Amino acid sequence: MKSPKHILLKSSAVAAGLLTAVTVWQNVNIKITRYHIYSNHLPTAFDDFRIVLLSDIHSRNFGLNQKSLITRVKKMRPDIILVSGDWVDSKHGEVATCVEQAKLLRQISPVWAIYGNHEIRRIRKTGDDIIHGQLSDAGVKFLHTSGTRIERGNAYLNLIGVEDDIQISEHARKKKHIASTKSMLKRVMHGILPDEFTILMAHHPEFLNVYSSHPIDLVVSGHAHGGQVRIPFIGGLVAPGQGIFPRYTSGKHNQNNTQMVVSRGLGGWKPIRIFNQPEIVVMTLHKGLAPKK
Q1: What is the DSSP string of 101-162?
Q2: Domain total for the chain?
């Protein structure tokens, strides 16, 4: 007859093995998260317009021909793909991996991107920006604190982007980042009317109060990695720029007349995610007010 100690050790080993298997599965398996965005500002021509949001890929490789990423994005049938920063990791992985992804994504729909803190860090470290050239050659269009119009028929919506200020140290005080963001938004919002539907790509979700002080209908963001460790019924544990138990790590948030969708990102292993699957976000735009629940 086996002793209680032996049974306890065996049970503990089984439990540890199951926990490890679940954790590995959660880091590898990509979740699709869907949101519906309603606005009276949206032109009728853009009703049911579908956006795929990717963020914080961190040079992750998704297998032969990037299959586990590309297959899922293709199934979503997006009208446009947005990459909200940290596509390229500052230390790990290759730009070539991101270029391969860009070429394949561009075959699905137009791709727009901004830089996050990792691209800026890499540029500061090397003194050279090879990212823009290589990804642009692959068909990606960048919004380096600039804007464009996405047209459909005789209608349009505004797509604008802000990113980390390359002149500001990564460890600068939050006040400097806020001041820089305000300055960039002032430039990029110039000429945009309050009743025009406007989407802002911004890597940092913690500045929602700044974004929502402008007539911006939708902000798409990332950076927080879902809080890295997610505690059931509570949320993310920690995020850069937000500290412990951060407010903006995933999901949809509203402030004033601005909606913000935060992606948990796609990078996986450094550091490891816990109860925090990498995700592809799909947003469908709708003309009018959200239906009452």
Answers
A1: HHHHHHTTS-EEEE--HHHHHHHHHHS--HHHHHHHHTTEEE-SSEEEEEEETTEEEEEEEE
A2: 1
